[in-house]
Automatic annotation (TrEMBL):
Function: Molecular chaperone. Has ATPase activity.
Protein name (record): Chaperone protein HtpG
Family: Belongs to the heat shock protein 90 family.
Source species of the chain: Nitrincola iocasae
Gene: htpG
Assembly description: Homodimer.
Listed Pfam families: HATPase_c_3, HSP90
HAMAP family named in the record: HSP90
Entry keyword annotation includes Secreted: no
UniProt binding sites for ATP: 34, 38, 80, 85, 99-101, 122-127, 174, 343
Primary residence: cytoplasm
Residue ranges of the region described as A: 1-343
Amino acid sequence: ETQKETLGFQTEVKQLLHLMVHSLYSNKEIFLRELISNASDAAEKLRFEALENAELYEGDSDLKIRVSFDKDAKTVTIEDNGIGMNRDEVIEHLGTIAKSGTASFMSHLTGDQSKDSQLIGQFGVGFYSSFIVADQVDVFSRRAGTAVTDAVHWSSRGEGDFTIEPTEKAGRGTRIVLHLKDAESEFADGWRLRSLVRKYSDHIAFPVLMEKEAPEAEEGEEAPEAKAPEFESVNSATALWTRSKSDLNDEEYQEFYKHISHDFAEPLSWSHNKVEGNLEYTSLLYLPGHAPFDLWNREAPRGLKLYVQRVFIMDQADQFLPLYLRFIKGVVDSNNLSLNVSREILQKDPNVDKLRSALTKRVLDMLSKLAKNDAEKYASFWKEFGQVIKEGPAEDYANRDKILKLLRFASTHTGNAEQSVGLEDYVSRMKEGQEKIFYVVADNYNTAKNSPHLEIFRKKGIEVLLLTDRIDEWMMSQLFDFDGKSFQDVTKGELNLGEVETEEEKQQQEESAKVLEGLLERLKPVLDARVSDVRVTHRLTDSPACLVLGDYDMGAQMRRIMEAAGQ
Ligand code: ADP
Ligand code: MG
């Protein structure tokens, strides 16, 4: 009697499979990195669960990954003795995509292969990348702690469906057998596989074993006796963050990033630190190159990978960074936390607060370094994440000054819409006698740039920041000053241009005010119901009149937000 069942892939998986095979073809070798990355995750999960239940080791706590091949059968096999999967887990993990942002990802696909391959890369390729090189994949898995007879065999040709049936498996963990497409048989080769492991997976903390290559028998020599194959580790097999900086090159840091972030693209920057003393930790924090699909979803998973004394504890530990730095990826490994920490315990442990403020500083320092040393990279960071950073000044009072220096704005100084002007630049260009930092908030760049409120500033050559992001008015309402200079919305209240105005100008203004007094007296009763005051202004040079808000009035942008919310 057979218990083999055929199940269909979730629609999204079918789409992803199709796309993956067609658009990632030029990166096909990454399948090995993805499978080894999964094997390593599985080993870490087992080690974590075994902290509570050592029996899961079944007497074998020597965690490792093995890569083998068969030239004649054209197969490559990746095997681990990690946590393994039971039937339900296999169906869920290898038949659906559970990631948040999947729908959004799917809706961004264009059908243009080069664009789509970029997108898939950002989304994370994972297990399904096996089908770039294989026309059949068999997975044998047994979850740690279950019976030898409770193993499962999953098999698929990467089209619409897969089969699943019970099987027996002596060792726990997962064995994945790739049946290579004819055109990809080059991967069933020791030299090729070894070099791929070294290139992509050297940083994996568990040994990746391959069979020792037997030396070719020389002529006249007797063929060596057949004996059990000997295996050797092909990678460094030490957790990358425990190694010293001087020992690591950029490629190694980049590959490690891809492993922990499930990102396919390069990170923009990283910061690796070992700290000893009262608070002992090692951190390796990365700045991704692009925003994830779910950056604005408050429920989206975020946070660092947490290790305690080199043992993996949890993914997405979100206690170690503030919300406005939620896009940072990385690892924190601490000796100050206990091995049996849980999310609940983390919330109460005072060491977590200390780590959080230390790591926040690391990130802010990394960003200011980037701003200083690589303007181009910083500009691309700002495009991707600037709006999130703008939540920072309100969320993180202690670091407000540092965060303010990281902000970038469009400005009348540059004449284009790019947000590239920092407050330090602004201050360095302030006119003699200018006391305030002037800004205008509008819905878009053109409206801001053409605001009649700017006329007087243009005439006097005073720079004004042009703020057009949704969050801007709210952010400015949280700010008071920078470098001792207060912020002033040019549409609000009296314009005090400080010492910039000359005595002569003041006199002129007073005179013209007198001349216009009569006009004001006639205008006030006419506009009475609609405005709170009518004043003579020197803000305008070309336009005859403009509306001005009181100092404490809600700005136009904020008012629209409140109206939209039904207030
Ligand atoms: P990701 O690694 O980003 O979660 P993958 O497509 O690579 O996505 O893998 C999907 C899921 O399948 C993993 O999250 C894991 O639960 C499961 N999985 C894959 N390979 C293994 C393995 N070797 N051992 C145990 N579980 C695995
Ligand atoms: Mg994976």
